[in-house]
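U., I forgot to send this yesterday:
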Amino acid sequence: MLKELKYLLYVLSIFIFFFILLKFYFSDDYKKKFYRSLSNYENIIEKFSKNLPILKNDTNNIIEYVDNNMNKSKKKYKFWKLIEND
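Result:
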């Protein structure tokens, strides 16, 4: 009897927890606060983005292109030929 009451108490506490949780997250007050905070973050991001410094581009002519045809002494291997040699 005591064991059943204990399980009933556990199940009941879990259901109460989820009920209160869902009631809170689906309430209108929570939705209003959530959307206000989103708009607040958008305003903060916009405000800080206007004050960002623009950096000078110093990456011109950095890449050097190398011609791959210079080293023709490489032997081209084929996968099946390598297996046959073993």
